[in-house]
Amino acid sequence: MMKSMRCITPLVLLSRLSASNSLAVASASTATGGAGVHVPIGKDGDGEYTASTKGCFDVIDTATPLVLEQIKKQPLRAFGVAAYHIADYGTADAGTSLGLMTKMVEAVRERSSDETNDAGDEKKEVVIHYEDQLTNEWQSVFNHALGLKSVSDAYNQPIPNPYALDNVFVEACGVGFHNQCYPKNSIDFGVSFTAMHWLSCSPSSLGGTEYMHAARLSRPDAVLPEKVQAASDWKSILNARTKELAPGGRFVCVNFCKDSNGYFLGQTDVGTSMWDSFQSSWDELKEQGLIQEEERLGVSFPSYYRTKDEFLEEVSNDSDLKVVSIEERVVRCPYRELYIAGKTDKTPREYAEWFVPTTKTWSHSTFKSALNDTRSEEEKERIMDQFWENYMTLVEKNPKEHGMDYVHAYIVFEKVE
């Protein structure tokens, strides 16, 4: 298991890249930002993230009207540019955004055909660039993007695949969204969902404390290394997108936030805090004699949930990238909503086994990284199995109280011409 990248010195990662994946990789000095901070779980190719993270479909559905509205408004590049280029930053295994990508392709073709009065534009070429870290599940990306693995949402509704529309081309980039990933003025529309809260490196300043995440601190004014790193990363992210977007291009960023009510991922006005459940389940490992005190206090998430003000602070008045709109939204946990509505027919234990994996997909590697390096991989995984069992047992006792509400800032950017 790769440890989180520390914010100390540049780290060069070497990887054997499959030629079939056609990854676009920058020089080693710039391509590794963020690689290893978050490590996917499951076997590459299985698409476990999409299979277990059904709430992301609802988050993207909430953003879809914003995206389609901007496609209608943005100036299309001169028709001599053959293809329309979409970038999906921090795509994970690419499954959760397939429905949106399909609608975007259809919207671009409808508008292009209407404006040129050319029925041939109904098949206008569209390139979808899938971006994520070097260590991403790239086989899963292509299985989803090429339609080799079908996808359904939390309500068992099949998700259409844009590749089936013909004249849609799929490419992948493993550079990392903290860096410039594509040539200047080459992207017509960029999107990112539930990704850019991950930091380019891990300050790990919460290790040795009772806090696992910066959002949990009772002193929101505290100047944490995570807060400082997040500000620097956000500036880098915006600078990179400014370069990549074509004039008139759009970037819709849906990112975890700490909203005006103090709500954030898994901790809102409904149910038990997911973070309280994490903490008690992790502490129980100490009580069970499985971890030491240093390990109990060793969890420090390498991510940061920015406030609305923090998102806006790094937008320069001199930049060509302008904010069209920003709003905070809470998307309720679909697992809990379906269970409470009686639409699952699941027992409390079955609900726990259904819900808990959606918290595991993105947090497992961070918890595991707190375990002592003297432990073998096998021992670490046995401990992690017990941790997730502790959590499922907790959920089973009162399933209606447990869920993971999503709290995001929905931001629309425009690159002015």
What key attributes describe this structure?
about 425 residues; alpha/beta
Description:
35% of the residues lie in helices and 15% in strands. The chain has 13 helices and 8 strands. It starts with 22 loop residues before the first strand and ends with a strand. Mean pLDDT is 89; it is low at 9-31.
**Number of helical elements:** 13
Please report the distance between the alpha carbons of the first and last residues. Answer: 45 Å
Which sequence of SSEs, written as H and E, runs from N to C? EHHHEHEHEEHEHHHEHHHHE
* Shape label: globular
Q: What is the makeup of the main sheet?
A: 8 strands, mixed
Fold topology:
Layout: E1 23-24, H1 28-31, H2 48-52, H3 55-73, E2 83-89, H4 98-116, E3 125-131, H5 138-145, E4 168-173, E5 187-193, H6 225-244, E6 245-256, H7 274-287, H8 293-296, H9 308-313, E7 321-331, H10 334-340, H11 348-355, H12 357-369, H13 377-397, E8 406-415
In a nutshell, what does this entry contain?
The protein has 417 residues and is of the alpha/beta class. It contains 13 helices and 8 strands. An 8-stranded mixed beta sheet has the order 1-4-3-2-5-6-8-7, with helices on both faces.
